[in-house]
Specification:
CATH architecture of the largest domain: 3-Layer(aba) Sandwich
Helix content: 40-55%
Largest sheet: 9 strands, mixed
Shape: globular
Distance between the termini: 49 Å
Number of strands: 13
Structural class: alpha/beta
Order of helices and strands: HHHHHHHHHEHEEEHEHEHEEHHEHEEEE
CATH topology of the largest domain: Rossmann fold
Number of domains: 3
Number of helices: 16
Length: 451
């Protein structure tokens, strides 16, 4: 059984020097409270609440704790005489942060223990310093025995909640171990070169001149993967729109729509559920199209506008629900991209709080929404037009099963997903990519034509 440990974890937080600070750990605990209580996520994590020198470690504590949460929680139960009260979720978060530091980060043990325990004072709970200190010192002494005991539970050993581990084993009996391993490591930082400003070979030289090493993506023609992640502002020409951050799997949207859009300048294209706008921008970088983009989240739609402005691109943006038609002007689309809301099970490594926040009951609800979106958007597509369905999920209920059900109830729909590509694997009428360490995220695509 493979599992991350203090010797194999590839977290970018490894090797980060601890500059100290009770405030750093107190801030991380506050940020984690919504996650461990199931009331919020790390999506809007604000690292500006700590000084700049501590921001990398702050993110490492927050994301690393979420990534290893099942084991941390199991160990916390062993270490505590009795659980903390609900009002002390911030102290529970501090304990989890302390355990993560001792097991996964190269931080001196005295700092991991002393400053984590001391951070309780900044949370106004001096009494907790003694409890945290005792728990963490016990872990120092008994780590091997305690880990061996809690890892008897496969969900703990594989760092996935029981329902999700069971679901992955059923869906991918030959691949679930590799999926879990990939989920438990941070994803690489992959770039998309804006072809309006040059090709990726030229940009690779610019990266080299800036002291940044990268390699070509195997399947995305505009993609480069950095050997070591960096701040986006360190990327040459980032502010001028020369490059964006986007996973290789997400970049394949343009590969699949390219044969339809390239011969037809001015095609009327809809990007449904478009936020945060990576695929929107990529299509505009490559094709001369009339692109309309809709999203139900006004805040995320504003991010799309910001991204397009940085890249010097324009699209018609609409705030609306893609399962309805009140935002539509009545003119059919030549092509539609439906990047459907989904479980995110293909991008857990980038959003590890999914392990805590996602529930098994979410999957049928998401599948029902995806079905409504497909049915509604199909009526907006002209005869002969193409719809590309995409999710960042690895669950068949949202992917192959979803498309099969749509084809059964939609007589004028026919699948045209290519079978002669070197990426992914056939999955029903679509194509499935699974997350791979140091490579692409998990993604599903199905291309459909309206006969």
């Amino acid at each position: 059984m493979s599992k991350p440990d203090a010797h194999t974890d590839k977290s970018p937080s490894r090797g980060i020097r601890n500059d100290g600070g009770l405030a750093l750990r107190a801030a991380a605990a506050r940020a984690l409270v919504p996650v461990i209580t199931g009331k919020g996520s790390l999506t809007q994590l604000d690292d500006h609440q700590v000084v700049s020198r501590d921001r990398a470690l702050f993110k490492a504590l927050c994301y690393g704790t979420c990534r290893t949460l099942p084991r941390l929680q199991a160990l916390a139960e062993k270490l505590l005489v009795k659980p903390f009260k609900a009002r002390d979720a911030d102290i529970q978060a501090l304990l989890l942060i302390g355990i993560h530091q001792l097991l996964y980060l190269r931080i001196p043990a005295h700092a991991a223990v002393g400053e984590t325990a001391g951070a309780a004072r900044l949370l106004g709970k001096d009494w907790a310093t003694r409890v945290l200190n005792g728990c963490l010192r016990r872990l120092q002494r008994e780590a091997s025995d305690l880990e061996a005991e809690v890892d008897k539970d496969p969900a703990v050993a594989w760092l996935h909640p029981p329902w999700l581990l069971k679901t992955l084993r059923q869906a991918w009996p030959d691949d679930w171990r590799a999926i879990c391993d990939a989920n438990n490591q941070p994803g690489p930082m992959t770039l998309r070169v804006n072809r309006r400003h040059g090709d990726r070979d030229a940009y690779l030289d610019r990266l080299d001149a800036a002291g940044l090493s990268a390699r070509l993506c195997l399947h995305a023609p505009d993609g480069l993967t950095l050997d070591t992640p960096c701040d986006v502002h360190a990327l040459p020409g980032f502010e001028d729109g020369n490059v964006s951050v986007q996973d290789e799997a997400a970049q394949l949207t343009a590969v699949l729509l390219g044969p339809i859009l390239a011969p037809r300048p001015g095609s009327r294209v809809l990007d449904a559920c478009c936020a945060p706008g990576g695929k929107t921008a990529h299509l505009l970088e490559l094709f001369d199209i009339d692109l309309h983009a809709v999203d139900s989240d006004a805040v995320r739609l504003a991010r799309v506008e910001d991204a397009l402005t940085r890249l010097g691109l324009t699209a018609t943006l609409a705030h609306g629900d893609a399962s309805e038609q009140d935002w539509w002007d009545g003119t059919p689309f030549d092509s539609i991209l439906l990047d459907a809301p989904c479980s995110g099970t293909g991008v857990i490594r980038r959003h590890p709080d999914i392990k805590r926040l996602r529930r098994p009951s979410d999957i049928p609800a998401l599948a029902a929404l995806q079905g409504r979106l497909l049915d509604n958007l199909w009526s907006l597509l002209r005869p002969g037009g193409t719809l590309l369905y995409a999710t960042c999920s690895v669950l068949p209920e949202e992917n192959a099963d979803q498309i099969q059900a749509f084809l059964v109830r939609t007589p004028d729909a026919r699948a045209t997903t290519p079978t002669d590509v070197a990426w992914g694997r056939p999955s029903g009428a679509g194509r499935q990519l699974l997350p791979v360490i140091d490579s692409q995220d998990g993604f599903f695509y199905a291309r459909l034509i309206k006969q």
